[in-house]
Amino acid sequence: VEGGDLSQLAPLPWRPACAIARGVCSALSLLHSRRLVHRDLSPRNVRCSRELQPKLIDFGAMAPVGTNKFLVGTPACCGPESVHLQPLDGRTDLYSLGATLYYLLVGRQAYAAREFSALPDCWLAGFTRPSELVADLPESLDALVTELLRLEPDARPASAAEVMQRLSAIDGEPL
Questions:
Q1: Is 88 in contact with 68 (CB distance < 8 Å)?
Q2: What is the CA radius of gyration of the chain?
Q3: Are 93 and 79 in contact (CB under 8 A)?
Q4: Is residue 49 helix, strand or coil?
Q5: Catalytic residue of the set 40, 121, 136, 154
Q6: CB 40, CB 58: distance < 8 Å
């Protein structure tokens, strides 16, 4: 894919960030419909064409929905259920999407952990809402990113399709 990964493109204005996140959600919807979890969605694992068309890559950590015995992924984008080896489902990838979208908007990680062992302390400290760091960010986008980064899976949006619909409502673009 010509172009770079999201770590090279961030920060981006909120409209292109919404479009990229919506494209990633499309790929996640397909995976989740087959009861699979990517487990390593991060800025480095989304490449964009020059036209900012996103492509989710690196499916080496993909696993079936359910309990997994091994912790894999990018620490700063890994949800608590992954770290605690609890059952995983699509909401696990949605947490990672939230971390990736935060990075895309802000240019830094919400939870800047380089190692899994540092995550619990990061989670306790919390993160700065994107709207406090980015001018003119729509409140609805700020709320969506915050919901995606909730530590409890039940507090996150239920599906990638729901996130796609919310992103379309935020930026006014069709699904």
A1: yes
A2: 15
A3: no
A4: coil
A5: 40
A6: yes
Residue with tokens 């999201």: 6
- At which residue do the structure tokens 């608590």 appear? 80
Report yes or no on whether pTM surpasses 0.85.
yes
Among 137, 143, 148, 168, smallest CA distance to 14 is for 137
142 is catalytic: no
Sign of CA dihedral 96, 102, 104, 107: negative
pLDDT in tens, 111-151: 999 999 999 999 999 999 999 999 999 999 999 999 999 99
Over residues 56-108, the pLDDT tens digits come to: 999 999 999 999 899 999 999 999 999 999 999 999 999 999 999 999 999 99
Tell whether omega for the bond before 11 is within 30 degrees of 0, i.e. cis: yes
Tokens of 157: 């949006």
Strand partners, 93: none
Hey, what are 74's tokens? 């990018």
